[in-house]
Amino acid sequence: MAFKYLTLQEEAYEANMEIAKQKLAIYTFGNASAIDRDLGAIAIKPSGVPYVDLQPEDMVVVDLENQIIEGEKRPSSDTKTHVLLYKHFPSIGGVCHTHSTYAVAWAQAILPIPNFGTTHADHLVAAVPVTEVMSDEMILGDYELETGNQILQLFAQKKLSPAEVEMVLVACHGPFTWGSTAAKAVYNATVLEELAKMAYLTLQINPLAQPIKQTLKDKHYFRKHGPGAYYGQEGY
């Protein structure tokens, strides 16, 4: 094993272990990755390996052209999606894809998750966006690359910032999240699952529920984000 990738592999490993710990995926579902931009290297979960069997050295290292540079196993089948996001969202350091129940349900319903309350607004002002259903041509072409292209097209069309909206639903598929680190990407996946569950329950209680007003959304978002933020402590 090349020791220069060991720290990166350990970061990706810990992120994948957190997916299992938070019950965001079962068996071999889902994956997380981490990038070292100085090395031009991405460490990602190997395809089809159960979480309980993973070790840090199992993380496959690829470059930004999807070529394996370290590891004996095949990388996740979603690797091309991760790589495309890293190439086009230069501020992110980790990507996570899960099959968490409520987020997948919204993706399968092909509906964005409305911002019904302050828990949602603490993390993003916008609704959690959802892509369009992929065309047959895209499905039969380079499917995983086209999954990434769908996310990029959605963010461009809606003028969304990946620094402010760190989560998305891919229609009929499931959620992708990202963040400054792989750990933050999994954190965002965990938050997304809670937001999806809360929104579902809100609509069960009141099918006519409306998103909260803009001033309340802004208050909760900006007290945690931006130059005027005052929530929390340094170092946490």
How many helices in DSSP terms? 8
Q: What order do the SSEs take from the amino end to the carboxyl end, as H and E?
A: HEEEEHEHHHHEEHH
Q: Which architecture name does CATH use?
A: 3-Layer(aba) Sandwich
What is the typical, i.e. mean, pLDDT? 96
| Structural class by SSE content | alpha+beta
- The counted number of beta strands is 7
Global shape: globular
Q: Which CATH C-level class is it?
A: Alpha Beta
Which strand-content bin applies to the residues? 5-15%
Question: What name does CATH use for the topology?
Answer: L-fuculose-1-phosphate Aldolase
Point out poorly predicted stretches: none
- Gyration radius, rounded: 18 Å
Amount of helix: 25-40%
What's the number of structural domains? 1
Distance between the termini: 33 Å
Largest sheet: 7 strands, antiparallel
Set down the secondary structure blueprint.
Layout: H1 6-21, E1 31-36, E2 41-44, E3 60-63, E4 68-70, H2 79-88, E5 94-97, H3 101-109, H4 118-121, H5 136-140, H6 143-157, E6 167-170, E7 174-179, H7 182-205, H8 214-222
Antiparallel strand pairs: 1-2, 1-5, 2-3, 3-4, 5-7, 6-7
Helix pairs in contact: 1-7, 2-6, 3-7
